[in-house]
Write a structure and sequence with these properties.
Layout lengths: L4 E2 L10 H18 L1 E3 L2 H10 L2 E3 L4 E3 L2 H10 L3 E4 L8 E4 L2 E6 L5 E2 L6 E2 L3 H13 L5 E2 L15 H12 L3 E3 L7 H11 L3 E8 L3 E2 L1 H13 L3 E9 L7 H22 L5 E9 L12 H17 L3 E3 L12 H17 L3 E5 L10 H18 L6 H4 L1 H7 L10 H10 L11 H6 L5 H15 L8 H20 L5 H12 L8
Parallel strand pairs: 2-13, 7-17, 10-11, 11-12, 12-14, 14-15, 15-16, 16-17
Antiparallel strand pairs: 1-7, 2-4, 3-4, 5-6, 8-9
């Protein structure tokens, strides 16, 4: 099992208990009076049977308080997720904090920092770096949004195939165009589990594709996260408390359906909430308001006993690994770790959800190491207080450098970053004035030259993935979701390319 990090002190709380109760009451009021829209006849009928007030014409569902409260009670407060390699299993919940990457639609050119589609090799390299990084514990649904030559509907299945074959860490699976049905098959064929997702649309709406994905999650028994994305001031209230109330109402509307159809299904809640930039009209990625919303939601979710995922430190508004990227990621992620997030999405991403790069993931892994060391706190024992040692060393000329205590404890007490510039000025000048990005490039080269997944796929598993991908190709081609032009490019640039393992 991956240890992750353990928060060894009480999480930071921004709200009083009275304020927590006020927001919870508002959530119940929204669900009872306003309700949520479900664009699915199946879901409407199931919620009707449960005792909800269902308006079939408006597709609006209103929820009695007792159903919401009971659904919260049915959510497990912690649970295990099986990876393809058991050493990478996760136990989600409590004071354990895990980190995963945040997605980027495209890679970036290292000379111009402009976005472009990744190649298949670049996609594979990104996953290999993720698999090698010690402080990255799971892989997101969209590391990149596919790679060159793939029809849009095949981006998720092709990506999952690379993820599974290149990494043994826990995978997340997205569901656009019902692609999760093929991802679930691939994961089952190769062992372990995946984290599935249902993605709400703010305000208070669930579309049929996400509801279908929810039913597949229920049928598979895999864990899932209920994702909600709000732009405060646009698709949600401009206030932090109002946005949190809206977000929880949407989360719990789906959790009622899930927990009554499959009591105890492993879930955690995730919110991608960003303030509206009122000057430009785009989301304010990287702003500290992202962390404030998540801090409030973390505290309320703990009162419910439901684990949380936090993406406040993932997307930034900068376009390259610079000072702005560093402070936006570090401050927001640290706030999430201090206030009780169980999962934090951080590694690799740059602007919004549009770009990502393995070099940024390597830099981010040092940020995570520092955050992890901080939240694990301070060990206070007779040995760490070291009273006898202090007496033994005494004043100057005594020193601690050569003591057995120092040799035993310095690595335990410190986190040593792997790609930071920590040289003196003379050393820095002599070795070429390298910065952290230079060191990240060197580390990436080392990883790609030597790292391999801890458990390679067997020939029969590769064959089965190929069969499932062919099933997906035929499914989308027959539905007219892959054009003849896309199919021709796909066959030439991907399926017939040298080294492609799943044709």
């Amino acid at each position: 099992m991956l240890k992750g990090f353990t928060r060894r002190f009480k999480p930071l709380e921004l709200l009083t208990q009275e304020q927590v109760r006020a927001i919870h009451k508002a959530v119940l009021d929204v669900l009872r009076e306003t309700g949520a829209t479900f664009h699915s006849e199946r879901a409407l009928q199931d919620l009707d049977k449960l005792g909800c007030q269902v308006d079939y014409e408006q597709k609006r569902v209103r929820f009695p308080e007792y159903l919401v409260e009971e659904a919260i009670r049915r959510c497990p407060s912690s649970y295990r997720i099986k990876a393809r390699d058991p050493k990478n299993d996760l136990v989600v919940g409590g004071d354990t904090v895990y980190f995963r990457n945040f997605p980027g639609m495209q890679t970036v050119d290292l000379d111009t920092w402009e976005p472009r589609d990744a190649t298949r090799q670049e996609y594979s390299d990104l996953i290999a770096v993720f698999d090698a990084l010690p402080n990255l514990h799971a892989i997101s649904p969209y590391p990149y949004y596919g790679y060159e030559g793939i029809p849009p509907v095949m981006r998720i299945p092709e990506g999952i195939a690379i993820n599974i074959s290149t990494s043994t860490k826990v995978q997340h699976i997205a569901n656009a165009s019902d692609a999760d049905q093929f991802g679930i098959e691939m994961v089952k064929a190769t062992g372990g589990e995946a984290i599935l997702v249902a993605d709400g649309s703010a305000p208070l709406t669930w579309y049929d594709d996400q509801i279908r994905a929810t039913y597949r999650a229920i049928e598979s028994g895999f864990p899932m996260y209920i994702l909600q994305g709000t732009i405060a001031g646009a698709t949600g209230p401009a206030t932090i408390a109002g946005t949190a109330a809206l977000n929880f109402a949407e989360h719990l509307s789906m959790i009622v359906l899930v927990q009554f159809l499959k009591p105890g299904l492993r879930v955690h809640i995730a919110t991608d909430t960003y303030p509206q930039n009122m000057r430009t009209g785009v989301p304010g990625f990287g702003r500290i308001a992202c962390a404030l919303v998540k801090a409030v939601e973390n505290q309320i979710a703990r009162s419910y006993g439901i684990p949380t995922r936090d993406s406040a430190g993932g997307p930034v508004s900068s376009k390259k690994p610079d000072f702005q990227t560093g402070y936006q990621k570090a401050l927001n992620a640290l706030a999430g770790a201090l206030t009780g997030s169980n999962f934090l999405a951080l590694h690799g991403s740059l602007y919004g959800e549009l770009t990502a790069h393995p070099l940024q993931a390597i830099l981010d892994d040092d940020i995570v190491g520092m955050i992890g060391r901080f939240i694990e706190g301070v060990t206070v024992t007779d040995e760490t207080i070291a009273l006898d040692l202090i007496e033994q060393v005494g004043p100057i000329p005594g020193h601690y450098l050569s003591t057995a205590h120092t040799r035993e404890w310095w690595k335990k007490e410190q986190f040593v970053p792997k790609v930071a510039d920590e040289l003196t000025y003379p050393e820095w000048i002599k070795t070429g004035k390298k910065d952290c990005l230079d060191y990240a490039k060197e580390r990436m080269a080392e990883i790609l030259a030597s790292h391999r997944a801890s458990i390679p796929l067997t020939p029969s598993q590769e064959e089965e993935i190929g069969r499932i991908l062919n099933e997906a190709r035929e499914y989308y081609h027959k539905k007219g979701m892959i054009s003849d032009e896309e199919w021709a490019v796909y066959k030439e640039k991907v399926l017939k390319s040298p080294g492609y393992p799943f044709a």
